[in-house]
Amino acid sequence: MTLQTEAPDTVCPVARSLDIVGDRWTLLVIRELFMGTSRFEEIQIQTKATPQMLTARLKSLEANGMVERHPYSEKPLRHEYRLTEKGRAFYPVIYALRGWGETWSKDKSEEIAVRFVHRACGHDVGLGSVCPGCGDLVERKDLEATMSDQFAAERAERRAAFKSK
Prior knowledge:
By secondary structure, the chain is α+β, with helices and mostly antiparallel strands. The chain has 7 helices and 4 strands. The chain folds into 2 domains: about 1-90, Arc Repressor Mutant, subunit A; about 90-165, no CATH class. Strand 1 (about 65-75) and strand 2 (about 80-85) form a beta hairpin. Helix 2 packs across helix 3 (about 40-45). About 15% of the residues are buried.
């Protein structure tokens, strides 16, 4: 994860993309933003990033045009983070990682962590990007997300552990 301040040393789009989003922490920050988490503390809780690590990732994402800061409190000054058009355009990558992870990175006894239902027709889209009910190609804005009980409990436990520190 680097800030592009000089000409890249390659024309490879994969390498250039990895310069912006190529580490675990950055991808987890982006995941949180897509899940609707926008404040520093909650992003920190759910990613388990140190404050320094999270600050560095958010600054880099902001400098690379993936996120914008917006003040939500004047005293003390606090910001929330929102994906830009460029950041929102990254959703297919996060969605593909989700699908791959659901298929290859977990025990078969575990339920799907987040289910997506196509708002237009009400069908569960599973792990694909085409609705099996109506055949529409779906984007994030077309989907209603519901966390599994296990994933919701995991997130609540992280929040409670952070608050008890």
